[in-house]
Design brief:
Blueprint (H helix, E strand, L loop, with lengths): L1 H21 L10 E5 L5 H13 L2 E4 L10 H14 L17 E7 L7 H8 L7 E8 L4 H11 L4 E2 L3 E4 L6 H7 L5
Parallel strand pairs: 1-2, 1-3, 3-4, 4-5, 4-6
GO molecular function: FMN binding
Keywords: Signal
Protein name: Flavodoxin
């Protein structure tokens, strides 16, 4: 009986050693990626979907509880009033299992020379400690850099990678940017 037990123990130890030798050295667990975005006219959504398709990340649409006007001029008036009031528009839903994500892309259009106030609401609702934030935005002609910088400013506890600005919904250059910041091989 004792011999059988020793033989069984030897087989188990040999198996464990063989399996350990087959395991890759320094293998890192796969990073979980979230692409959180606010989009009014669809441009930022288009860019976010492209990023998700390339990275395999999970999309999360930041939606206001009270929708913005669908017409351009009334929407800009609401956006301007929110900025002047330093408002925090309520968001419909929260990210499920926030803690599972290591890398968070945060995207939005440029509104009144910066990120819309709903981005403040989003960033204030989560703990970014230990996360990596990658900002992106869509814009018509200017204030890309200011908007990307605002997203970084709103997430001081996170590490940050270089952001990206897309003119309207143009996805040209996204794949190269993702390679540059080592989010793609």
């Amino acid at each position: 009986m004792k011999t059988k037990l020793i033989a069984l123990l030897a087989v188990l130890l040999f198996s464990a050693g063989a399996n350990a030798q087959n395991a890759p050295v320094n293998e890192q667990p796969a990073k979980k990626i979230l692409i959180a975005y606010f989009s009014w006219g669809g441009n930022t959504q288009h860019v976010a979907e492209h990023i998700a398709a390339l990275t395999g990340g999970t999309l999360f649409r930041i939606e206001p509880e009270k929708p913005y006007p669908t017409e351009y001029t009334p929407c800009t008036e609401v956006a301007k009033a929110e900025k002047e009031a330093d408002a925090r528009p309520a968001i419909k839903k929260k990210v499920e299992d926030w803690e599972q994500y290591d890398t968070i892309f945060i995207g939005c259009p440029v509104w009144w020379w910066t990120a819309p106030m709903i981005i403040n609401t989003f960033t204030e609702g989560y703990d970014f400690n230990g996360k990596t934030v990658i900002p992106f935005c869509t814009y018509a002609s200017t204030y890309r850099d200011e908007t990307l910088a605002k997203i970084v400013e709103l997430t001081p506890a996170a590490g940050h990678l270089k952001g990206f600005g897309a003119v309207s919904k143009n996805t040209k250059g996204i794949k190269e940017w993702l390679k540059e910041i080592k989010m793609l091989k």
